[in-house]
Amino acid sequence: MFDLTEHPHRRYNPLTREWVLVSPHRTKRPWQGQVEKLAPETRPQYDLKCYLCPGNDRAGGHKNPVYQNTFVFENDFAALIPGTPSGSVAPHPLIQAEAASGVCKVICFSPRHDLTVAEMELADLRTVVDTWVDQYVELNQTAGIAYVEIFENRGEMMGCSNPHPHCQIWASSIVPNEVAKEAAAQEEYFAANGRTLLTDYLEFELKSGERLVCVNDHFAALVPWWAVWPFEVMLISRRAATGLDELSSDERDGLADILKRVTTRYDNLFEISFPYSFGFHQRPAGPRNPAWHLHAHFYPPLLRSATVRKFLVGYEMLAMPQRDITAESAAARLRDLTEVHYRTRS
Ligand code: H2U
Ligand code: ZN
Fold it and tell me: Which end of the chain has the least Cβ crowding within 10 Å, N or C?
């Protein structure tokens, strides 16, 4: 009898229409690979050398204001630049290039250098949500912008250059690959069913409960059926908002609440500041597209401890992603954790 908890199988991701290989029996194998060293976690509230702290110098002779809550600035090393001339070349049907323009920004979440999302006050996280909404609205309406990606890299392990709490926005004239895949799947599903793909998926997950991490009235956090990263989590708005700009005031509070709760659970898992890449997927620029359902992905690299991380290498680069622990067991571990942050416990 086929058993999801024991037998190798593949699972389907309906958002990207890709499969992930799940090998639950492999968690028993011994580990002799790389051990990550984590930097000690004592940070000052203000760091003279931090380019994100209030009043400090940045690259190119810029100086941060003495900001009080959030602070937005244009990335001094932007990957996309406004006003890039449009155009394309295709010297052969197999050889194509297309100009890409856009705007890259950095958002500091707080003037406090030592805080993380998990450790920020709810009211301050709400200010972060409001800043995201403002930026999304502004950039989505900017001529030449097709998609606004808001994302956070947390922790050195994820390539984050600075522990000061911050995120990035890359708004581009192109629709990026992951978004294009999700757009196609959501649009087809909506056309066939008249409901968003994630409305129906969330209904299934709320009924099952097996992969839920935590929920409030406005958002659910779950380990998706098709998770690739060990402790991958998805946030899904319970009402099918197409983007951050459609959230009511209560829903924005709900987003702040679920962000704090999920990141606190993450930090409590190995009692470290848990590294991850996080970002939203939402309606591209242009007319309102009701097929889109606002959600966010957390992709954390850690596997079985603070020092053992997953790499997407070998079979995963050459064939398909693979995981050892099931989504259900990862969700159960996250669900069983307290929402009191380990650093605040005496
Ligand atoms: P990450 O920590 O996710 O790398 O984000 C920090 C961003 O800050 C990064 O994209 C930018 C880098 O280009 N940055 C500036 O804009 N000005 C600076 O003085 C240093 C870093
Ligand atoms: Zn700082």
Answer: C
Domains present along the chain, CATH in parentheses: 41-337 (3.30.428.10)
Strand partners, 219: 237
Residue 103, beta-bridge partner list: 171
Give the ligand whose atoms come closest to the C-alpha of residue 155: 1
- Which of the ligands is closest to the CA of residue 111? 2
Q: Checking phi first, is residue 249 left (phi over 0); if not, alpha (psi -120 to 50) or beta?
A: alpha
User: What does the alpha-carbon distance between residue 141 and residue 58 come to, in Å, rounded to a whole number?
Assistant: 28
Closest CA relative to residue 225, chosen from 248, 194, 197 = 197
Structure tokens at 148: 């606004």
Q: For CA atoms 12, 13, 16, 18, give the dihedral sign.
A: negative
- Six-digit token string for 156: 């050195």
Q: What is the CA(151)–ligand 1 centre distance, in A?
A: 13
- Which residue, 150, 301, 331, 324, is CA-closest to 224? 331
Catalytic residue among 113, 164, 166, 297: 166
What pTM did the predictor assign?
A: 0.96
